[in-house]
């Protein structure tokens, strides 16, 4: 057996071993997701049917002492806060990604890129302290002492928190667009700005959407920072200056001392949150399929 044959067989063995390793890793990931789904639905659905699906999802009173478990105010609060974070974070994140990918000078990029990566590594509790000590007083100065902890405050902070995700994914997607797209637009007489905004960015819209979806997932699932600045009032807000309680905040605040049906209702709240995330991911998958067909 010559040396080349041995090397070929050794390469095949290593390739087969790595295929098995990757298969095991994929199976473990799928199994973990499946176990989470089974646990949530097995423990949450019975509580929903005990309380009543309509009473649970559309009820406006959350009073565990009176066995009233309506999470509609928390659903509305989560939607409002997440929508506000999208309004604040998506335009800033997208424009920052475009700047860093196509307009930023190299010396400045060396400072901006680590700064964005650093934002992604800051714990949420630190963001919460920043919001509590900086953003809340600013809101109180502008809108009155009763409106410091509100939907607007939480939206601004969550908008800042999702910036690193949107910027990183969007920048990578924009840089992945072939240079021929940009150069072709220049050859047809378009300016640098028009080539970037009307050719390169639309070509990267799939990756940009992925970054936005990841940012939305973090916004709707954020807990600690929101608890500290959203007001934690289980009510349907009349304006963006009212305090709210989100689904995640409701779970964290009461899970420590809950028992019986109360605890099951909190797990059922987690089921609702899980379904929201699944719907968001499903919508993203549908959009990507439509884009590919088009």
Fold and architecture overview:
The model has no long low-confidence stretch (mean pLDDT 86). A two-stranded antiparallel sheet has the order 1-2. The protein is globular, with a radius of gyration of 24 Å. The chain is built from 13 helices and 2 strands. It starts with a helix and ends with a helix. The relative contact order is 0.14. It has helices at 3-51, 53-58, 72-103, 106-121, 124-143, 151-161, 163-176, 179-187, 192-203, 205-221, 224-229, 247-255, 260-293, and strands at residues 62-63, 68-69. Helix 1 packs across helix 13 (260-293), helix 10 runs antiparallel to helix 13 (260-293) and helix 12 (247-255) runs antiparallel to helix 13 (260-293). The protein has 294 residues and is an all-alpha fold.
Topology:
Layout (H helix, E strand, L loop, with lengths): L2 H49 L1 H6 L3 E2 L4 E2 L2 H32 L2 H16 L2 H20 L7 H11 L1 H14 L2 H9 L4 H12 L1 H17 L2 H6 L17 H9 L4 H34 L1
Antiparallel strand pairs: 1-2
Helix pairs in contact: 1-13, 3-6, 3-7, 3-10, 4-7, 5-6, 7-10, 8-9, 10-13, 12-13
State the gist of this model.
The chain is mainly α. Helices cover 80% and strands 1% of the residues. It has a two-stranded antiparallel ribbon with strand order 1-2.
Keyphrases for this structure?
single chain; 2 strands; about 80% helix; mainly alpha; 13 helices; about 290 residues; globular
Biggest sheet, strands in spatial order?
Answer: 1-2
Percentage of residues in helical conformation: over 70%
Q: Can you count the helices?
A: 13
Distance between the termini: 54 Å
State the secondary-structure class.
mainly alpha
Strand content: under 5%
Shape: globular
The residue ranges in which pLDDT falls below 50 over 5 or more consecutive positions are: none
